[in-house]
From TrEMBL:
Domain annotation ABC transporter: ranges: 2-230
Residue ranges the record marks as coiled coil: none
Name of the protein in its database record: ABC-2 type transport system ATP-binding protein
Entries under InterPro entries matching the protein: AAA+_ATPase, ABC_transporter-like_ATP-bd, ABC_transporter-like_CS, ABC_Transporter_VariousFunc, P-loop_NTPase
Classification via CDD domains: ABC_DR_subfamily_A
């Protein structure tokens, strides 16, 4: 369970995030939407202790993320390409993570086999450095890495951005499978309302740093979001 309490982030005079309370139960697929600058990335960065809140706390399974390290073992994330090691090839990068997570070669192959369709023969065994990959392929490496080591919680910032249509569909399938098989708690930010409403159990709408809607009814989600974004 992830709990956000009295969270505020301020840059000089500007309050960019102001969330009195938010709780995300285990195994929920939590979608986060909002226009540019709404605060989605800032919220994820605070939840991952990449940025410190001005006020308030985020706890993952009762551990304050800014005070403990233990939650990191159970958490995977891909927010942007800065999280990758650009001087490695994807194979070298996955092998490095394999050692960090104490996985065997068989565990790694088993993990990567889930990504065969998504990788589309562009990622593994290609001897291309991560720095030279296309934006879509970079994203695929980051997502595969975020799901290594059996995380219980996975943060994905804009996972569908830069993916071709087939890859978007394959990624949706993969997330739904992971959700079903491993009961991972997913936190996914997206500008793609169709994809995010399809895979998420709940959508939180941010506007200027505030939660202005918390949608849990799958049948009504799309219409409500449509009305907000077109209105
Ligand atoms: N280091 C910083 N210094 C000053 N302002 C910042 C900083 N980081 C973020 N902000 C501001 O915080 C607000 C929220 O930004 P954030 O990147 O979280 O929005 P977002 O919802 O992820 O946007 P997008 O959809 O464009 O990715 C923006 O107004 C942004 O300019």
């Amino acid at each position: 369970m992830i709990l956000v309490k009295n969270l505020k982030k301020q840059y000089k005079e500007a309050v960019v995030l102001d969330i009195p309370s938010l709780d995300i139960p285990k195994s929920e697929c939590f979608g986060l939407v909002g226009n540019n600058g709404a605060g989605k990335t800032t919220l994820f960065r605070i939840m991952l202790d990449l940025v410190r809140a001005t006020e308030g706390t985020v706890t993952i399974d009762s551990e304050d993320v800014s005070k403990s390290e233990d939650w990191k073992k159970r958490t995977g994330a891909f927010l942007d390409e800065h999280m990758l090691l650009a001087y490695l090839t994807p194979d070298e990068y996955f092998k490095t993570l394999m050692k960090i997570y104490g996985m065997s070669e068989a565990d790694l192959q088993n993990h990567l086999s889930k990504f065969t369709d998504l990788f589309n023969d562009e990622i593994v065994g290609k001897k291309k450095y991560i720095r030279d990959l296309s934006k879509g392929n970079l994203k695929k490496v980051g997502i595969a890495a975020a799901l290594m080591g059996n995380p219980e919680v996975v943060f994905l910032d804009e996972p569908f951005e830069n993916l071709d249509p087939s890859s978007q569909i394959r990624l949706k399938k993969l997330i739904l499978q992971e959700k079903e098989n491993s009961k991972v708690t997913f936190l996914i930010s997206s500008h793609d309302l169709n994809h995010v409403t399809e895979i998420c159990d709940r959508i939180v709408l941010l506007e200027k740093g505030k939660v202005i809607n918390d949608l849990r009814d799958k049948t009504a989600m799309m219409a409500e979001l449509d009305a907000y974004f077109t209105g």
